[in-house]
Structure formats: structure tokens, C-alpha cells
Hints:
Helices cover 34% and strands 19% of the residues.
Amino acid sequence: xxxxxxxxxxxxxxxxxxxxxxxxxxxxxxxxxxxxxxxxxxxxxxxxxxxxxxxxxxxxxxxxxxxxxxxxxxxxxxxxxxxxxxxxxxxxxxxxxxxxxxxxxxxxxxxxxxxxxxxxxxxxxxxxxxxxxxxxxxxxxxxxxxxxxxxxxxxxxxxxxxxxxxxxxxxxxxxxxxxxxxxxxxxxxxxxxxxxxxxxxxxxxxxxxxxxxxxxxxxxxxxxxxxxxxxxxxxxxxxxxxxxxxxxxxxxxxxxxxxxxxxxxxxxxxxxxxxxxxxxxxxxxxxxxxxxxxxxxxxxxxxxxxxxxxxxxxxxxxxxxxxxxxxxxxxxxxxxxxxxxxxxxxxxxxxxxxxxxxxxxxxxxxxxxxxxxxxxxxxxxxxxxxxxxxxxxxxxxxxxxxxxxxxxxxxxxxxxxxxxxxxxxx
Length: 426
Ligand SMILES: [Zn+2]
């Protein structure tokens, strides 16, 4: 399909927080935080923004950013299912699959994921890559190739995911040098459970200092559970207080922190803000895996305390995490599904600044992207235009959409095309 240029100008309802705060002639948003504007485009960029009275235009966002996925294992659920839904069996299936993982498989999974993500309206992804076992080489080779293939359409950032202890070994230091040379980040899993004694602290400090020397960021899977409340984030914060580093550090998950008594959560969140820690909350995988009680519905749903962290000044973004792999059977790389889930899971509402920024400007900053996702004169003519006019319509059902990149319409998401299985019915 040949991409087509839109008939300029476009009349759309945009969240006011995604429109240039410096442009004086743009009024405030309505009670939904939305403002109808006419956008003139030229040479793939926004040439002019004018207010346009009325609320009868389609709702639009700028393309979204997902700061936490796992492309190397995406779509592996059908061959390596985890019907019990426990973390232990997810890890076991992941390890079995990783031993057999090939470059061709990861190329195919990643290509499919990026194609879907691009058509759905994502412009950048940060993917963790299993880096300790047999799947490491094929995973990195394939994803580095895909990063180049998709540059300019979906920016791809890669994080080496290994047991924390690896970074203290000669092999870990070699891996770190390769990852840093490739522009990647260092990652790992920081409990629970935690080993006794000072092991975790020593390993974590070794990682932070190694990453600092190499100048590459760190993104950890930390406190993904309902035990030892906030222990990992607390440990990381203490180490950053005593040994400052110049590199950005992200806490993915931070789920068990939410089970701390609120005054302790606030105190920890303020310390996290002071050392510049960012948090990526991952509600879909957390809701699937955590709080399971052997045949009883969960009474506790550990997920990062998003709003309390935001109030303390911590940068918080949301990510999809696992997509159709042993850790979570659902997901499709559709950022609007995550935006819709943020309401029931962490009480973020898209009509609030703090409800929208975790999908747009905050992850853009975490990934170091040149554009913050705000529509201003000279910004990329990049938009996700929805078959909805209100937030309630977006929350009611996943809307059909058209995605504009550099002033050109992309082909529609594959999920919007007629399903052959249904079309074949008599
Ligand atoms: Zn993850």
C-alpha cells in the first residue's frame, strides 16, 4: 500500500497537555482537557496550529512510547504456554524456550512486534533482552539488526537482562562493554527473594559502578512480587544516596513497594525522587502473575504506587512488559490497550496531565528521545487519530485509528482488517 498524504489542514481534538504550552493564542482545554485545533502541515512537520471552535472533531494523540517490553520472547506462549500462571512456571518455560531460541525466531518475533507497534501508533520501544544463556547471542544479533531496520519508524532501545551476580564477573564485564558499545543499557533482576547478607548490595553496587564507568543507563526488574515490601527499591535508593552515579537508573515494576504503609511509601518515594530514580509500572503482567492464592481470587494486587510516586516527583511511565509469552498470554503491542487498562489498574485517567504523560512525554524522556511528543510549530507531523471524540468513547472500546507519521498515513493496524476466519462463515 502506498502511503498517502492527508488533505491538510487537519481538524482534531487534542489533549491541551499535548499542545504547545508556549503558544499564547491557544485557550485552555474543555472539561475533558481537550481542545479542537486546525493543524496545517508542511514537509512532514507541523506548520501552524490554530484554535477551531466546536467539539465535533476526532480525538487525536501523538504517537506513544513503550518503555518496557521483551521482544526476544514475544509470541512464544503458543509453543511454551504457562497455563498455571505462576511466576515459577513462567520462569521455567522461559528458560526452556531460551535454550532453543534462534536468531531467525527472534527476527520473526521482533519484526512482527515492531510492525504491529508502528501501525498501532508507537514510535519507540525499550526492550529487555535475555542475555545470560543460550538465547543471548541470537537475541542480540536479531534485535540489533531490527533496531537498524526500524530506525526512523520505531526507535528501539535494548537492555541486557541477566542475573545481577553476572555483572561482578569477568564475563559480565565483557558483556557490559559490548552492550555499552552497542548503545544499550544494563539490567537485571533485583528480588524478591533477596539473598541473605550483603550479597545483593554488593552485586548491585558493582552493576551501578560498571554502568557509570561505561556511561550506559541501568533498567532493573525490581520488587516484582508481594514480599519484602519495597526492599529492592529501598536498597537501590540507599546505594545511590551513598554512591552517586551520573547515569540514569530506572526501576521497572516496583510492585511490592505499594504494600508498604503509606507514610513509609511516601518517605521512600521522596528519597527516590531526590536521587533521580525513574519508575516503569507494568500493570498487565503484575495483575496476571502477582497475588495468586491457589484457587482464590487475589486479595492484594501489587503494582507500583504510581500516583504517590508522581506526587513525590518521581518520573513514572507505564509499559506493556510481556506480550503473548510465558509471563503473560495477552497483549498485542497496542499502546491504547495499556492506556485503557491504566484506569482500572492504577486509576490514571487520560483527561489528567499525570494520566497521559506516563505514555508520552515521560517515557520519551526516559528513552532520551529528541521529541517530547508535544505538538508545536516545527514538531513532526506525527499523530494517532482515533475513531472517538471523547475519552469515554476511548475507554468504552479500543477505537479504530489512523496513524500519521511525518505527514503520511501509515497502513492500518492488522487488527483493523477483516478476519478471514469470520469472513469464511456461511
Ligand atoms: Zn519485564
